[in-house]
Amino acid sequence: MSDFIENQVQSLLAGQALEIDDTHNVHVLANDTTDVKSGQLTSHIPICLKTVTYIVAAVVINDQGEMLMMQEAKASCSGKWYLPAGRVEKNEDLLSAVKREVLEETGLVLAPTTLILAECANGTWFRFVFTGNIVGGNLKTPDQANEESLQACWVRNINDLPLRSNDIIYLLDRGKSYVLNKTVPQHPQLMPVIKSHAKLLLRLIVTSKKRATNRLHVLLSDTERYDLPTCEINPNRSLLSTLHSFMTEIFGNDVAQHKPHGLLSVEFSSGQGGDGLCLTLLVSFKLPLEDVPIIGKYIWHELSENIAEALEARLPRNMTVPLKVVR
Description:
Belongs to the Nudix hydrolase family. By secondary structure, this protein is an alpha/beta fold. Helix content is 18%, strand content 30%.
């Protein structure tokens, strides 16, 4: 069991997809079975552009500290400014989508380097924000205006522009923090990986130290194969509500204080075997595991020193990709 778990954790720390299929052991939340037989997942099937919405956006900053912006052409917001962004199309992967949007709206060719932020609303709306480098193309000018955008430009101060929405201010601040602040350690580069998922899933790496040994442990399902805890994201509730329900069913209503840190990996179907995804979220308890009673069918597993050290290195601020729950 030890090698199997160590390999899983190591893969997720590297932002990779798990080679094994761990979705057969998805935990069914009690509140999610109202419309189906007990013990089954919800009837919600994520279908891109219909029952689930995926958005990509790019925060691109040049060597002069200027940010890439585009001027909207849509009638509802014509003339306003926004980041290059748009919906992921059917059977499209996230990287292809963000490169397409940047090219269509700014005329520039983007080489994405990492995911810097993920956002979720109501369990069926996800926005993935990337940064990267411009490797080609020509900046779109007003005489090249079309239905995608009126023009694009590099901007030092976005306060000089009328914005389509202020929601991008947080995205821009996150991008500047990652790209420009070289004095603060940041998470390793993370790219979404393509893996078939028919559902919207949340996988947890939950950690706590044992008081007696001071060794780091991770939580596993107490089943034949000992998988990491995974549940379906409720399509009708916020992701934080799903997380709270999951933790409560594992640890009880008096679950000890814990901290969701951020994402370690993103698995995205891209239409291959469904339009679902799986987000791997790192969660830690400050209390020792002796003070964190488990009521569900889960157990603690002690990690080797090397894997424990690598996992602990991802616990500080900025060492995982932030997951922001919008609503």
